[in-house]
Amino acid sequence: MSRLIVISNRVSAPTSEGGTGAQGGLAVALAAALREYRGLWFGWSGEKTDEFTGHIDFQRAYGVTTATIDLEEQDVDEYYNGYANRTLWPLFHYRIDLAEYDRSFGSGYERVNERFADTVAPLIEPDDLVWVHDYHLIPLGAQLRERGLRNRMGFFLHIPWPPSRLMVSLPAHERLVLSLLAYDVIGFQTEEWLESFKHYVERELGGHCDADGWVHVGNRSVHAAAYPIGIDFKEFSEAVQSDGARAAYERMKKSADGRRTIIGVDRLDYSKGLEERFLGYRRFLEEHEECLGKLFLLQIAPPSRGEVHTYEIIREHLDELSGRINGEFAEVDWVPIRYVNQGYPREDLAGFYRAAEIALITPLRDGMNLVAKEYVAAQDPEDPGVLILSRFAGAALQLKDAVLVNPYSKEEISDAIHQALQMPREERIRRWRSMMDVVEKEDVVAWRQAFVGALKGATPQAARAAG
Fold this sequence. Notes:
Elements: E1 4-10, H1 25-36, E2 40-49, E3 57-61, E4 64-72, H2 73-92, H3 103-120, E5 129-133, H4 140-146, E6 153-156, H5 164-167, H6 173-180, E7 185-188, H7 191-204, E8 208-209, E9 214-217, E10 220-226, H8 233-240, H9 243-256, E11 260-265, H10 274-287, E12 295-300, H11 309-329, E13 337-340, H12 346-355, E14 358-361, H13 370-378, E15 386-390, E16 403-405, H14 410-422, H15 425-441, H16 444-457, H17 461-466
Helix pairs in contact: 2-3, 3-4, 9-12, 10-11, 10-14, 12-13, 13-15
């Protein structure tokens, strides 16, 4: 039986046999796949070294073998903080105004992908399936082909793929996209991102796309399709019923003191639309004075990418905006926004979700957004809350019974909050059941099985062409 080799920027070793606890659903799903296929998970350790030696640290825990390498500080600055997070991330989230194009970033990105390829190639056996993850490692498949690998290789993009008119603003964009054609299967979160990729291929590379998902450029062919990722439904359902979740639920209810709770949980990132969310909530408070003192917004926003200056600015803006709103509307015994800059374990979040009558999930652009799905999975079937969701999140294409909003519109966010507060129980249950059916059936296990199945069945034309 073929092994599965998973390669990602960072490696998340399992913390238990089932992967429960603070570990994310993606890590749980990949760990399960690696146990099933006797696999190996390769990536950066997150640690820095004075000199790159190619030393691999092998660890084995709960049936999963991980292999990690350390990177030099220059690598981290140019590859991770630079090209990945200051060039590709803003561009792929439609923020070309924030994208930084620095030649050293691009060279660092290529260098680290080459180092990944040099280090992992000797570990890959001829029959192994190789699954590369996300925008950090787009060129890795081509690098592995250059080193003689003819294995079936797949790539999955967890974030959006931008329209062609934005993609062409990236220096050497053709080279980056051509490197994707070294894979046998390319997966996207939604049909929208897939169509953007196909449009680029046809317009900029002169390729053509078949109705059955094959993309052809010159003598290279690759199968491209949408594989929307889900949560680990079984694991998260168990977390909802855990003692930790029940304690968190009680803590929230006691703290709310009879007030209704609106919750948002997001990394501190400009793509999440937090400033627009606060402004929409402020508009609601202005338009509905009768609700003052009767509800509050709990926004959990753990900091991320602190070494990137843009994120420091975001935090400063949100600190100032939340303080201004609280200063304008607060009473001695009530504040309208509880703004928290720290993360919580999954069990705590499950309890917080269940205690909240409304989830306000309004990213400006998001590949999927699993918080929306977790909120649905956490609800009480007899008295579920209401999900307000940005129509620009990938999850909106599946969770069609959420209250969908344009996150750029303060009025739409305000109206949606009012609609959610007034929504009859029967309607809340109907909407929740429809979304819950999707969350349960299209979970992370189904996603993983669909992608690996496609990778096992794909004719490796890219490999033959590369040879």
